[in-house]
């Protein structure tokens, strides 16, 4: 359900360094939720993101495959993390909010 929604929402994808798009979206207050790949190597390159998400009160979730996350982001390379953002007035806002609530329930 989460990956299916990615084909239809605006994503900030992180392919190389943890200091780029997903981190920027979090720091700027644009991220609705963050998705990270559990098979990122080394996993330590992602470990600052859950802390930042908790600090910014943004839900996050790990999925098993960076290849699947890359496909969902519409790129041919594996993606280790992405932040889902939404534009005001977007028709997808209700779907994104539902996914956000589902992720929040996973964290409780």
TrEMBL record:
SUPFAM superfamilies with a match to the protein in the record: L30e-like
Gene Ontology BP terms: mRNA processing; ribosome biogenesis; RNA splicing
Family: Belongs to the eukaryotic ribosomal protein eL8 family.
GO cellular component: nucleolus; spliceosomal complex
Gene Ontology MF: a single term: RNA binding
Keywords, sorted A to Z: mRNA processing, mRNA splicing, Nucleus, Ribonucleoprotein, RNA-binding, Spliceosome
Residue ranges of every copy of the Ribosomal protein eL8/eL30/eS12/Gadd45 domain listed in the record: 22-91
High-level lineage: Eukaryota, Metazoa, Porifera, Demospongiae, Heteroscleromorpha
Compartments reported by the entry: Nucleus, Nucleolus
Main location per the UniProt record: nucleus
The organism's place on the tree of life at top rank: Eukaryota
Cited InterPro entries: eL8/uL1-like (IPR050257), Ribosomal_eL30-like_sf (IPR029064), Ribosomal_eL8-like_CS (IPR004037), Ribosomal_eL8/eL30/eS12/Gad45 (IPR004038), Ribosomal_eL8/Nhp2 (IPR018492)
Protein name: NHP2-like protein 1
